[in-house]
Structure formats: structure tokens, C-alpha cells
Amino acid sequence: MKNLKSFSSPELEAFLISLGMKRYRANQVYQWLYQKGAASFDEMTNLSKEERTALNEKVYISSLILIKKQTASDGTEKYLFELEDGNRIESVLIPDEKRLTLCISTQVGCSMGCRFCLTGKGGLKRNLEAHEIVDQALAVKGLLNKRITNIVLMGMGEPLANYDNTIAALKILLDEKALNFSSRKITLSTAGLIPQIDKLGKEGVKVNLAISLNAATDDVRNKIMPINKKYPIKELIACCKRFPLPKRRRITFEYVMLKDINDTKEDAERLCKLLKGVPCKVNLIPFNEYEGCEFKKPDEKSVERFRGILIEHHIMSITRKSKGAEISAACGQLRGSN
Ligand code: SAH
Ligand code: SF4
Q: What is the pTM assigned to this prediction?
């Protein structure tokens, strides 16, 4: 049986018409799925009983199974979901003063193999379908009585290595008839897949772009991010420079700080040089340690020294406080197992 959420909006319309339903029903069903989060056809009370039965016989509505929810003392919540095939993924809800940000996954695992990242350690199991990406937002939304204000594609996986499904999911997240997020409130983070970043720039979806840079020289980046051998730093920065940013928007560069690897004064200075002329901001993320990891987090002093140098060079920069570390919900700690 087919999952109704695997249809794009035009496919849904064609399908309903094939069942003898009126065209306008497609809008109603679409809203039930993506605005009201309906889990069954019985809930779709503005359809006739016959229509609901007809749908029920032909298709079903997928949803994620919540296996476990953990809450950290800082308010961060981690959700472990099971997919239809038994694979598991995690989503993280991060509250701060003004925002409630949901961090969602795009793959089961990841094939990029970044040395510091726990998600990368297990390799890639599979891509998520578009509806599995969207379902994370729907599932968490359904459990909350507050509004999710921001979405970041920074959970498990490399979104641009699952390009088509990620774009399809973004379209639903942005669609005013579906989840209706503003494009300014969604951020896609990538390890730096140049052809896909170029492609994204030509796409109708204008979400914020974040690049996991993590080093200022190919020497260091090659060691911690194998993808750099394919797409080296200079080419990546050139790609960022030609990325068509909407007015007043900046690219975010994420920089995981690893003690004695990329946290020196010289590293900061090289980073400033590299980013000269790129409309950007830099998020410094002190490494989140986990069991068996080979890196250390730098002390606060070197993080602040690093940030000071960026600020001196007029590069906007913040240190991202790692939330949810005690429940392994912080950046790079998602594994999707129980
Ligand atoms: N694959 C995409 C999206 C995942 S985002 C990407 O890499 O951009 C995950 C972010 O967490 C990346 O910026 C990555 O550099 C960072 N990260 C990974 N492991 C980390 C760790 N152990 N501590 C801190 N940040 C980490
Ligand atoms: Fe994959 Fe991103 Fe982790 Fe690298 S940092 S292994 S790209 S999830």
C-alpha cells in the first residue's frame, strides 16, 4: 500500500481525481496532512464518509514511532524515532530565550566520515525519504503546545548528499498550505558538497546556508573532513562567494574547535583571511566530547581568543553553547540508537 505522504502536491491532486474526488479536495487533504498532522482518514471530517473509506482502501498515512524522549536540564529535548523499516533517527528540540529550534535528520547515518563526528562513525545506512524528514517536524509539533520557530538541517546526515528528498521536504516545510515556515527560519548545513551547493543556489527554495568549515587550511581539513580532498577549501570559498544570497543574508560558517588541531591564533588569522569579502558569520562550536572520541575540547580561553581575532577583523562570530550534551543531544553526538 502506498503512503499518502509520498505524493507531491500535484501527485496528490491527480490521485484524488483518479478516485473520482473533486479537485479542491486535494487542498483539504494536504492541509489535514501537513497543517493539522492528521494520522488517519477518520480525522478528515470535511471529506464525505465514502471518500474517507475510498482513501483508506487505497493508501495509508505514515508517521514516525516515538521510541524515547529525553529532556536535559537546560531544556533541550532529544527524540528517538523509529522508521517503518526499523531504522532509527534522532531529532533535537533546542529552546532559547526567543526561539524554539528543531534540529532534524536527513539520513540514517552519514557517509562523509568526518573524524570528530559520532554520526559519521557508523557510516551511511540510507537516505531519508522526503516524508521522513517532514514527519520529524510534524511529530514534534504534534507533541508540543508551543510553536517551533526555526528548523535546522543539522541532525544526522549530510542533506546535500540526499539532495532530491531534502529539497522536496524543504518545499513542504516552506509551503504556506503545509508547515508554512519562512525561508529565513530554516537553515541547511552542509560539509561542503560544491556541485550541490551550486545547484541549491538555482533552486526555488531560499533557505539559509551553513557550511561546516572547521579548518582554515587544506592540511588540517583533509585530516578531519575527508570530503575536503574532493572539494578543497579554496574551491569551497569560491562557491560560497558565487552563491546567490538574498539581500541582507549571510552564510554561516560552522567551526568545530578541536584542541591543538584548529584552535590557535594562527588558525584564527588564516580563517579571517579566507573569509575576507564573504558576507558571513562564524559559529564557533567547542568540540562535544563523547565516549571513545579522539579529540579534546579547547579551554574557554582559547575559544574566546579565537573569537576575539575574528571580531577584530570585523567578522561576526558567536560561540555556540552546546546544549543537551548530558543526553548526547549536542552537535555531532547523534547516533540514532537506543
Ligand atoms: N552533515 C551536515 C549537517 C550536520 S550538522 C554538516 O556536517 O554540516 C552537524 C554539525 O555539527 C556540523 O557543523 C559539524 O561540524 C558539527 N559537529 C559534528 N561533530 C561534532 C562534535 N563532536 N562536536 C561539535 N560539533 C560537531
Ligand atoms: Fe556527516 Fe556532518 Fe557528521 Fe560530517 S559532520 S560526518 S557531514 S553529519
A: 0.96
